[in-house]
C-alpha cells in the first residue's frame, strides 16, 4: 500500500490538538487578551484528561475533565490580567511555568501507564468507501469535533452579534465600554473558552495521540499554536489550514525516518520548530499584514474606571 | 466598602514589599499543600527550607545553584526593562554550553592557561549568536522575539542531544549519551574547599555591579529604560528601537551563554544530554521577583536556588516529586504579579451611602492623577 493514506491520517491526528488550542486562542486574542499560557493549560488538560480516563475508562469524561482543568487555569489568568490588571505577557509566562510544574507534580505517579486510545467513528456506508472512506471517515470523534469547532468559531466571529461585540472590545475596549458593552465579562468568557479548548487539546495528546502521560509531553505545541494564530492572521480558516500544514511537517519527520533518509533523528525533530520560525518570518515580514489584522488592543490592560 | 482605585504615583514601598508578600503567600500555600498531601507541614517546611542550609556544604550548594539563575536573570532583567521579551535563555544557555564545551573537548588533556578563558569566551559567543538570530529576525522581519527565542530553545536542545549521541559521545562511555570528562585545566576553579561553588558565582556578582552601572549611569542604559517606560517618548527622542533590541538580546544571550559554560565546566564537568533543570525559564521569575534590579536579582536567585534545593531535599526525605519546585516557582510569580497591583493601585474604604463633605475631593484627585483609565467625571447625583 502506498504511504499516502497513513501520511494523511497521521497529519490530521497531529493537527487536531493544534486546531483546538489555536482556535481557542484566536477567540481570546480577538477579545484583546494575549494569553501566552497555552502550553501550561494544555499540560494541565493533558494530565486531567489522562487521569480521568484512567479512572473511569471513558475517553469522553477525560475530555470534559481536560476542558474543566484548562478553564480553571484560564480563570487564574483572567482574574490576574483582567481584574487585577497584571502584565499579560508576564502572567501568561507564569501560567505556563505553573502548568508545567503542576502537571508534573500531579502526574508523577501516573507516568508510563498506558491507555487504550480512542476508537474511530464508523459512519454507515461512508467509512467503507474505498479511498475516500480511509481519508475522511476513519478518525476519532475529536477530529470531527475540531471541524465543528472551526465552523462554530467562524460563525461566531463573522455572523453573530455577540462575536461582533467581542471584536469591538478587542479593537477598542474603551469605546466598547462607553457604549455599554460588558468588557470585563466578555473578556473573562473569551479567556475561559480559550482555556477549555487548550485543555481539550492537551487531553487529546494524552488520550489519543500518544495514549500515556509524560512530563512536558506537549513539547512546545502550545507555543506553536500561538504562532499559528499569527500565521492565520487571526482568521479561523487560515489558522486551521496552518495547523494542517504543521501536522504535515511533523509527520514528514516520521516518514523520512521510515524511508531510511540518512539524517540524524534530532535534525528531523527540529523541523516543526524551525518551520514555526520560518512561517513567522514570512507573515510578519510586512508590518502592514500584522497592523491590519491584529486586534488593536491586544495585550493591553483595560481599567474600566469607577 | 473597600474599593480599588489608582494611586496618584506608584508606591516605592510597595514595589519592595511585594516580593516579600509573594514569598510569604507562597510559603502559606506550601503549608496548605503539604497538609493536603497528608504530610506534617512544619516538618515539610523544615525539610524544604531549613535543612538544605544546615551545613556549609548546603550553603555552598545554594550559591552554586544560584549562579546560573543569577547570570541568566541579570541579562533578562535588562531586556524586560526595555520591553524586549527574551524568554529563550534556556536555549542560549544550551548554546553557550555547546560552544564552550566544544572548545574544552577540542583542548582535550592539554593544560594551558588560556584554555578556560577561551572556553568562557566561546560560551558567551555561543549564547550571543543564538540570541542574535532572534534580534535579527525581530529587527529585520518584525518577528515576535517571544516565539522565536522559545522555538530556538527546542532547536538548541535537540542539537545538544545530537552531539552527545553522535560526534561527541565518549567512545569509552558504555554508549551513554555523554562526552568524556573535561580535563582539570578545563574546569572552573572552586571558590572554597569542601563545596562545589566555583568562580561563576563571582562572575555573577561582578556582572550585577556592571549591569547596575550600565543601566543607571550610561546613556545606552538610559535609552533602554526609556524605551520600556515610555516607548512614545523614546521614539520622539530619536532613540533607535532596533539598537535597543539588539543590545538587550545580545547582553541577555551573552549572560545566558556564560551561565551555560559555567555549568558544564563547573558542577557537570562534561557534555551530557541534560545540562539545566530549566534554569533559563526559572530565571524569568527571578528577574521579576528581583524587580529587574541587579541587587534584587541576586537576592531572588538565592531564593529560587533554595526552591531547587528544597525540592531535592523533599524528594529525598519525604518522597515528594521534585516537580514541586516548578509548582512553587509558578505560584511565586502569580503572587508577585498580583501583589504588584498595589504598586499602582490602592484599596480605599469608600462609604456607599451618604456622600456629603469629602466626596467631591476624590474625582478631582483621580482626574489630575492621569492614572490608568482615570475618569475625569463621576456623574453621581
Low-confidence stretches of chain A: none
* Helix-strand pattern of chain A: HHHHHHHHHHHHH
Average of per-residue pLDDT values of chain B: 85
Number of domains of chain B: 1
Termini separation of chain B comes to 19 Å
Secondary structure blueprint with pairings:
The complex is a heterodimer of chains A (306) and B (381).
Chain A: H1 4-30, H2 38-56, H3 59-83, H4 88-106, H5 131-136, H6 141-159, H7 161-171, H8 173-178, H9 183-209, H10 221-231, H11 236-258, H12 265-284, H13 287-293
Chain B: E1 2-6, H1 12-36, H2 41-50, H3 56-81, H4 89-107, H5 115-141, H6 145-165, H7 199-217, H8 219-229, H9 231-236, H10 241-268, H11 279-289, H12 294-318, H13 324-344, E2 345-349, H14 361-369
Antiparallel strand pairs in B: 1-2
Helix pairs in contact in B: 1-2, 1-13, 2-12, 3-7, 3-8, 3-10, 3-11, 3-12, 4-5, 4-6, 4-10, 4-11, 5-6, 5-10, 7-8, 7-12, 11-12, 11-13, 12-13
